[in-house]
């Protein structure tokens, strides 16, 4: 029998488009009235099947519609998309989607997501130009040589930096290049081949789980849910800090246990070959050049400016995209590379994220099929009936578990966000849970699955060090249980306050 292999994310998304189209023939059509903010008046516009109605833009209007939102969030532009109004569901005439609608769906999804797609591609170019400098690799090599004999601190510093990378821009694919550097160092320190994978993968995954400003997860999910990504940031910050500390303690304890007694290694007796045995770790400590320090500073400063721009200046995708384009140009200038080298590096970086960009379009195509088929409201109504009367303290952990399972099949954070958030974000209003907590439940559930999902990066990472997947699961399940409990506690506290 052939071993089961998880389908490609594009295959999964296209199958979901087909299933969604079939559902438009079977599921009764219906919709909720929606409320949008017109800043030019200012006023609220209620869109309903029998026509639009203009209402005063006041807190009393929101309260009368049973919308648990603050007027200031609309006035400040933090809630930009129409939101579903609880208790307004009504059935409509069917609008079944056929073969051509299925074909058009991903294309229309790409058109509809062009601002996000361009943002993703420009970030890819930015990372490509930064990678060209070798600044990050040099920083890791510098730490490795300086901390020789104190590798425990190398693990702590490395995991902290990679966790920041995960929470800042969903860093994972870029870490494949670190294994040839870290494996010889860790083995020389007395650790096993599982330690470099754990140090790298656990830190980036927990960073994604507590994504403070990850543009591929947090920002896209918040945008799809109709709220600013700055809302609920306290819960994500708590998950990021507490989760990172837990992961560091867990990995360091295992590494030191193996160092003190190699027989306690999960790889003991398996006779696994070191794939980087030819790489030597001896040599004089390297020194970071001034240019490297400047590039590392510019890299960090770019994300800091983005945070300030979005939170204080009202920036959105156009401004953020321009920021990363300018930062990429500055990096190319500081490296003093020719225009051809710069363009090649930029395009290569964008090409690396082209798959992510297309996944965003395919995922948006699912929403288009459901909306045009008028079953988004029906689905939302069925879900709201299923959880009606359920406390948010029960609803949020269950939703986190749902996202955890879904991430097994859709490993793209942006794809998952665009598939689920338009519905779940509206469901938050029906259930009485703030939309930002729905986003956090998505991040916690999806991020937890990234530790082990076979359709993600873990299998390529394990193959780099010849460690089998079963051993990784044995290593990971206690840590995942701990992080899952922490996530539920943080969601509950965020809901209560």
How would you describe the overall organization of this protein?
This protein has 497 residues and is mainly alpha-helical. Among the domains are: 33-88, no CATH class; 119-211 and 269-350, no CATH class. 67% of the residues lie in helices and 5% in strands. The chain is built from 21 helices and 6 strands. The protein has helices at residues 9-26, 59-64, 71-75, 99-112, 114-133, 135-146, 151-169, 179-188, 194-209, 215-225, 233-260, 290-313, 317-335, 339-352, 354-372, 376-387, 392-406, 413-431, 435-449, 458-464, 469-496, and strands at residues 30-31, 34-38, 43-48, 51-56, 83-84, 90-91. It has a 4-stranded antiparallel sheet. It has a two-stranded antiparallel sheet with strand order 1-6. The chain is globular, with a radius of gyration of 24 Å.
Q: What's the topology here?
A:
Blueprint: H1 9-26, E1 30-31, E2 34-38, E3 43-48, E4 51-56, H2 59-64, H3 71-75, E5 83-84, E6 90-91, H4 99-112, H5 114-133, H6 135-146, H7 151-169, H8 179-188, H9 194-209, H10 215-225, H11 233-260, H12 290-313, H13 317-335, H14 339-352, H15 354-372, H16 376-387, H17 392-406, H18 413-431, H19 435-449, H20 458-464, H21 469-496
Helix pairs in contact: 1-4, 1-15, 4-15, 5-13, 5-14, 5-15, 6-12, 7-9, 7-11, 9-11, 9-19, 10-18, 10-19, 11-21, 12-13, 15-18, 16-18, 17-19, 17-21, 18-19, 19-21
């Amino acid at each position: 029998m052939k071993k089961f292999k998880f389908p490609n994310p594009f295959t999964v998304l296209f199958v979901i488009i087909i299933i969604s189209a079939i559902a438009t023939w079977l599921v009764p059509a219906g919709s909720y009235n929606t409320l949008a903010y017109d800043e030019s008046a200012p006023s609220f516009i209620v869109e309903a099947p029998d026509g639009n109605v203009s209402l005063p833009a006041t807190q009393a209007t929101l309260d009368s519609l049973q919308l648990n939102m603050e007027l200031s969030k609309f006035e400040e532009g933090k809630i930009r998309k129409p939101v579903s109004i609880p208790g307004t569901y009504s059935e409509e005439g069917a609008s079944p989607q056929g073969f051509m609608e299925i074909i058009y769906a991903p294309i229309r999804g790409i058109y509809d997501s062009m601002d996000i797609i361009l943002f993703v591609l420009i970030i890819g170019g930015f990372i490509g130009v930064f990678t060209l400098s070798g600044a990050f690799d040099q920083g890791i090599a510098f730490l490795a040589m300086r901390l020789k004999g104190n590798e425990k601190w190398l693990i702590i510093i490395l995991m902290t930096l990679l966790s920041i990378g995960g929470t800042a821009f969903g860093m994972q694919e870029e870490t494949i290049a670190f294994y040839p550097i870290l494996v010889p160092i860790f083995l020389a320190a007395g650790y096993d081949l599982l330690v470099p994978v754990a140090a790298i993968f656990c830190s980036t995954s927990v960073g994604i789980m507590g994504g403070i400003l990850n543009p591929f997860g947090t920002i896209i999910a918040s945008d799809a849910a109709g709220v600013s990504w700055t809302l609920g940031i306290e819960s994500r910050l708590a998950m990021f800090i507490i989760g990172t500390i837990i992961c560091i303690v867990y990995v360091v304890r295992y590494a030191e246990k193996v160092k003190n007694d190699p027989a306690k290694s999960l790889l003991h007796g398996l006779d696994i070959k070191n794939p980087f045995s030819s790489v030597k770790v001896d040599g004089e400590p390297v020194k970071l050049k001034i240019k490297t320090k400047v590039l590392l500073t510019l890299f960090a400063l770019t994300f800091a400016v983005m945070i300030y721009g979005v939170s204080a200046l009202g920036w959105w995708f156009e401004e953020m995209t321009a920021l990363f384009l300018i930062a990429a140009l500055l990096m190319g200038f500081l490296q003093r590379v020719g225009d051809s080298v710069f363009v090649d590096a930029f395009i290569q970086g964008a090409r690396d994220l082209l798959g992510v960009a297309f996944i965003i379009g395919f995922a948006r195509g699912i929403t288009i099929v459901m909306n045009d088929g008028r079953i988004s409201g029906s689905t939302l109504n069925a879900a709201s009936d299923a959880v009606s009367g359920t406390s948010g303290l029960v609803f949020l952990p269950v939703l986190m578990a749902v996202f955890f399972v879904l991430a097994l099949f859709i490993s793209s954070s942006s794809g998952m966000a665009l598939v689920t958030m338009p519905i779940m974000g509206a469901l938050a209003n029906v259930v009485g849970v703030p939309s930002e907590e729905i986003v956090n439940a998505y991040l916690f559930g999806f991020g937890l699955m990234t530790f082990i999902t076979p359709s993600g990066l873990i299998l390529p990472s394990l193959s780099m060090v010849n460690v089998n997947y079963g051993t990784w699961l044995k290593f990971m399940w206690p840590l995942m249980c701990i992080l899952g409990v922490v996530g539920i506690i943080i969601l509950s506290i965020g809901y209560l306050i």
